[in-house]
Amino acid sequence: MSVQLSVDGRRVDVNVDPRTTLLDLLRERLDVIAPKKGCDHGQCGSCTVLLDGRRHLTCLALAVAQDGAEIVTAEGLAGGPDGEHDLHAMQRAFLEHDGYQCGYCTPGQICSAVGMLAELADGHPSHVSPDLTAAPKATDEEIRERMSGNLCRCGAYVGILAAIRQSAQASA
Amino acid sequence: MEHREGALGKDALTLWLVQSTIARGRVLDVDAEAALAHPGVVSVLDHTNAPILGQGVDEPDLELMVLQSTEVRFRGQVVAAVLAESAEAAREGAALVRVSYAEQDAEVEFGPDTTLEIPDKVNPDYDATSDDGDVDAALAQAEVVVDQTYRTPYEHNNPLEPHATTALWDGERLRLVEASQGPYAVASSLAPLLGLDVADVVVTSPYVGGGFGSKGMAHAPAMTAALAAITAPRRPVRLAVTRQQMFALTGYRTRTVSHFRLGARPDGVLVAIDHDVVEQTSRWKEFAEQTATSTRTMYAAENRRTVHRLARLDVAVPSFMRAPGEMPGMFAHEVAMDELAVACGVDPIVLRERNEPTVDPETGKPFSRRRLVECLQRGAELFDWAERPDDARSRADGVWWVGTGVASSTYPAKVMPANQATVTSCEAGEYRVEVGAVDIGTGSRTAMKQIAADALGVDPSCVQLEMADSSIGPATVAGGSSGTASWGAAVVAAAQLFRADHGDSPDPGLQTTASAADIPAAEDHALHSFGAIFAEVRVHRWTGELRVPRLLGVFSAGRIVNPVLARSQFYGGLIMGLSSGLHEDSYRDPRFGHVVTQDLASYHVAAHADIGDVRAEWLDEEDFVVSPMGTRGLGEIGIVGTAAAIANAAFHATGVRVRSLPVTADSFVS
Amino acid sequence: MRPFAYHRPADPAEAVALVAADPAASFLGGGTNLVDHLKLGVTRPGTLVDVTGLGLDTVEQTDASLRIGTNVRNSDLAAHPALRAGWPAVSRALLAGASGQIRNQATTGGNLLQRTRCVYFQDVTTPCNKRESGSGCSAIGGYGRYNAVLGASGQCVATHPSDLAVALAALDAVVVVLGPDGERRIPATELHRLPEEHPEHDTTLRHGELITAVELPSSPLAARSTYQKARDRASYAFALVSAAVGLDLDEDGTVRDVRIAWGGVAHKPWRATRAEDALRGEQPTEDAVRAAVDIELTGANTDDQSAYKLPMVRATTTYAVHRLLEGSR
Ligand SMILES: Cc1cc2nc3c(=O)[nH]c(=O)nc-3n(C[C@H](O)[C@H](O)[C@H](O)COP(=O)(O)OP(=O)(O)OC[C@H]3O[C@@H](n4cnc5c(N)ncnc54)[C@H](O)[C@@H]3O)c2cc1C
Ligand code: SF4
Ligand code: FES
Ligand code: FES
Question: Which residue on chain C is closest to A40 by alpha carbon?
């Protein structure tokens, strides 16, 4: 079946097997390898991208069901594969605070962090928000809870938190 | 494994593994008809058509003898593999393969009735037993005795990047891009079985998404990819092991049952230490975790005994997982020490100070450095230990019981021989440095560059580093906290020899290859790192759920070459230790023989929300007895003792002693 | 994964017709459970009918209720101001489930119809009556930490994993369903069923019936409600047990009315009506809550691995009441 997508600003029109997940389409067909396959079952967050501006897993999304979607991966946040000079503020913060070790979870962490701060700015509550009806704040506890869908087996959580805290303060 | 870098070309076929659904017996038939009829499926490999392995090899490694016979030795063994034009077709093809078996009785779990054996050696090469003095007599006379059993569960390494191999057979040479901690180790274990020279198996591991021991050696999937590639010449074969398959095929930590007996005087001074471990290996390949070896050097006591007993089971073979031996062994030892502190009414730090040996109790050799007491004292300061109430269950904050706990940590220092490095002068004062190191996330790329630059006396920007390629030559794995020191020693040796041979301003194109020199003093010393782990634990008054708001490690681990990398390793160890303390638990179903909590939703590892304020500090030091860089290795020590510190803190919070991992809410719910 | 046809109808009736006509067809919502199962081989449909293009993605408030379209995503629903104010237990239940990414993807109807997390159900190499009728139940005598302690049968001891469903069961929600024969309204407590002899059926829905909406009645109980979940990890983990509680007190502090439902204990969200009855007219003290819970738990069945669930359901319920009395929701 044919699917049209925007991937990191590039228009893509491909024919896919309906069984193909968005993650496999990106990685295997389009050679967009920033999103990683840590589990293939929604249990780790390493395949996270921004889909129509929201953080989204790609391993549990069928490509055919995403027709028309606009996808931004960690690579796209940086302005494409050669975008080193143009890193997103969140990416710079991860570098500055050593927010990774092996780097495998990192593209997912970064997309998730960007999407998460947007949710916070929109006033979405979380499991740890003491008052459901009040505007949530970017406390450490809130950041940790909201980022819990992104596992880091290397245990780089300390640096990840510091990076996101800095970005949250900068954007507040 | 990322394929943009190190890609072996387009056109790859996808390989999917088919695993046995019995624990022991024989494959009667592999019916591939339906699979082959599925669009996109190219071929199905099984024992009848796979290329033959291990010809002329004595005692081949059975883990790697994939698809060579009908014998099934554990549930989850590779019994077939499907090659297809796409991942979708390969997965469905694998689902359509029908395997029939003749099943035999299998023993897959150990219990009170299991036959146990004392192995010849435990890993890597320690005696399985030790016995000094008269432990039984000392225990019989001891005024205070702690006699308890401690349990650690099966644990799976679960690096976030699953194991993956891309293999290409060009008719003469096999090229593998492999998610590995040791590309040379992979090449040298696969080559003889394939009937190839090591030089004809080229393994590269440019980027590796963590390993924690599970990528330290070649496992069956890598060999399966190699076999499949040989059947499909000139087309790369890609195999991504699924998360679920990793639970059977890429190693794990054995369950351990440690019976500990500590005998002491009323002031807590130990007179006897007895550590009896029961653990398991597979019936068909031995892996004997060195669970009690740290007990031999940890504390002074006249009478000391350790023994490892192995159950040989029809299961997947266990393998290395971060701090193999020390992690489960020190959990038992350090909880037992906490129990002794409580029994004697002595502060846990004071107790450890009172049992500090002057020389290695096991060998009588002096320690190159032993600064455990300093670590404990520095940690006590940083953690406000002085404020701690003596009694358990005496502090609450809102709905939480609050407690703190401490445990010692240790890990042996090793420099692995058999590494070589090559230095070549280039244009404009630059040098190419080749070493078979690999970077699995520890930052060894950065560290090697820095070590090479220091040894050559040039700026790091003048060093072009080549690594992660088996064709560079012999190199040991990124594991056992030995990588930086071992590869680094070779780099230092090559750099020094290069300068000696070619001077400070060499012409381009000059080359020196060298291996690490032995350090004679190493023989005469006991070489260990030490640390102290402190945890604050909160236990929910009603539900019993646990949180660890504070975790601190203070380490004496030799020279710190790069503080950023070091801190990251310590954090990573501490957090994995926390994860084992609170979460990790592989449940092997004794009726089936495989682990049924085989994904990241049922095998929990710590998530962001489980982590509080984690801190790591180290003592300034250098240890030139171990390595020419003064380093001792940092990769494992953070995980050792951490689960014990958490269990001890949970006891302090609640008065409830938990002796098996993980420590979960059900022990505290009221 | 078996090859399948994919349809994306724009009209609910068409979606219903497509699935009703084909025994091998399934609805597809956000896919976070179904795609997982396609990969595992737990289910092998020949046709997927994507229902996310049907509209049905608005939340409408009237004086008496809140009507939630089935395609409202879990995160949007949890953040909806009306829900947060009027049905905090529902918002809390959603926020306690899965992860930020999954909640952005998961739909209301899909969440309710997610299937058990029983490890054997997900492992096609082991017998499971729910997956393959008559093959046996591996969870009995196997890994039991998440097993049911109430209402299980000799055929199946699985628990229902949805947090949302528990809050809906407590607060008297109604599930609106469109079938080939028109619309039905099902009380949330009657959407899921106990396993009895047929664990292959999770719910009382018939093949081809589409959830179109969920309606939540407003009430003082709903406005003073909360959700308490105990789990093995601080976040991103299914419930060991959970409790949704709504409380309405008289001026003197006695219980005028109360709603209690539990997750993690049964094949369906367990509405604890006997406990509710015991508490009505009483002071909601810790002892009274515990006693009421124990009445509901008579007849519970546990083994070594699941025994902890009884004290834990007591604890979560007591704590939920404690929080409501303290004024937090
Ligand atoms: C790692 C992980 C952790 C999770 N943790 C939690 C948790 O803690 N708590 C929790 O509650 N959930 C949890 N979930 C489950 C998650 O909430 C569900 O997967 C999700 O809500 C399902 O919604 P969906 O729209 O993606 O459903 P889908 O996967 O699209 O569908 C699920 C089922 O519902 C059917 N269906 C979908 N829509 C309709 C409809 N409108 N009418 C009729 N049938 C329909 C489908 O045919 C399918 O059978 C977790 C999931 C994962 C992967
Ligand atoms: S408990 Fe139910 S779902 Fe689990 S194995 Fe038994 S029948 Fe299957
Ligand atoms: S790969 Fe998608 S969540 Fe793990
Ligand atoms: S950096 Fe390795 S998994 Fe996060």
Answer: C36
